[in-house]
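Pasting as-is:
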Amino acid sequence: MDIKQIQDLIRFVAKSGVNEVAIEQDDFKITIKTNQAPTYVTATVPAAQPAFEQAPVVAAPASVQAAEAAAPVADTSNYITVRSPMIGTFYRSSTPEKPMFVNVGDEIKPGTVICIIEAMKLFNEIEAEVSGRIVKILADNASPVEYDQPLFLVEPL
């Protein structure tokens, strides 16, 4: 399995809501785990994709979809959205004992470390590319994030 297939598998796991996928072949074994609640609905992937043996298919419960639809929409047009540059796990501090890199109300400038994203056991410091004030933190600490997922709303200064 090459790196492209592994990245595709990670994207699939992040989008599907699966909490664990394990694949074992002759020369390697890979297990991808998330911190989501377990799901029990499964479906098989067509034989044209042998790297993905079985994959659960998950749909959000109707109550979750209704709650998301009923949530009020705030006007964020005057804010800059800082997005995740990669798939991984979002951390607001370097260790649980250390303070958060940024909090709501903090001013940032280009080069300020605002979070860490762990991808494949590598901890990547994410730096701000804009100047402004943090208005909202959109991702939960220690949660999986997808590529281009909104992480912060920043009010330009």
